[in-house]
Amino acid sequence: MSVFDWSTRPAANAVSDAGVPALDGASARELPGLIRDVMAAFAGYVADQGGAIRAGGVFNAYVARTFSGVRAIRPGVAVLVQVDRDNTDSPTLNVDGTGARPWLDLDGSAPPPGTVRAGAFYLAIASGPGWVSDFGGLARADAEDAAITAALIFGGI
């Protein structure tokens, strides 16, 4: 399980993540470990949003492995990915083994060859049957600014 599986309803989180067994009636001795588990899960989520994911794969099939572990693709799930090569055809993105899905531009079209650039960062957002991104890409400095902003918002700094 991962932070993506957590609920906004506290009671639903008692058994939503085996890595953070937050059952009612836990002993005081278990509390520090539970807190560390929550911190580790949240740190993974922040890393996913802050550009720590490097995409691999072959040809136009990009593969990304998150730190927080996406189990199911739901609309709005987002990851910041740095790609390792340029595209030569319509790309697909497979996040955490959930299956290769079309990776499209915001307007729903496939990015032309050479649009996905090696070393660039892309915010990929699950939408419909695939992923969408603004294939203008982010320069390294912009991605670092985004990571710092995310850390400030989520309390990492």
Provide an overview of this structure:
This protein is an alpha/beta fold and 157 residues long. The protein is 21% helix and 22% strand. It contains 2 helices and 8 strands; from the N terminus they run αββββββββα. The chain has helices at residues 31-49, 140-153; strands at 53-54, 56-58, 61-64, 78-82, 92-95, 101-105, 121-127, 130-133. An 8-stranded mixed β-sheet has the order 1-4-7-8-6-5-3-2. Strand 7 (121-127) and strand 8 (130-133) form a beta hairpin. It is elongated, with a radius of gyration of 17 Å.
Features:
157 residues, 8-stranded mixed beta sheet, alpha/beta, single chain, elongated
Instruction: Specify the number of helices.
Output: 2
Helical fraction equals 10-25%
Mean pLDDT: 82
So what's the overall shape? elongated
- Count of extended strands: 8
Question: Briefly, what is this?
Answer:
The protein is an alpha/beta fold. It has two helices and eight strands.
Summarize the topology:
Layout (H helix, E strand, L loop, with lengths): L30 H19 L3 E2 L1 E3 L2 E4 L13 E5 L9 E4 L5 E5 L15 E7 L2 E4 L6 H14 L4
Parallel strand pairs: 1-4, 3-5, 6-8
Antiparallel strand pairs: 2-3, 4-7, 5-6, 7-8
